[in-house]
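Recap from last week: sequence in, structure out.
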Amino acid sequence: MGNVDLRVDGNALAGVLREVFVQEMTTASVKCGGCGEIEQLGAEHVYMQAPGAVVRCCHCGGVLFLIAERDDGLLLGFQQVIWLEIVTQT
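Predicted structure tokens:
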């Protein structure tokens, strides 16, 4: 089984990110530190087979961040995220 068979898109993180962030996160923009591309989080590649989720840039494949559920909350590890823009609804 190849990487493409295991991959889902960033929309798979909607539920777990809702626990941390009040705003809808799949429409947040993220800038990759590897290639400099900007994309909505919902378009990024997500691998959920690890103990947690690995979010990779859909352009260069670099690891943007990791998110794992723990007994006492969530662990987020930011690797190649330059910035994350969350636009609030008014």
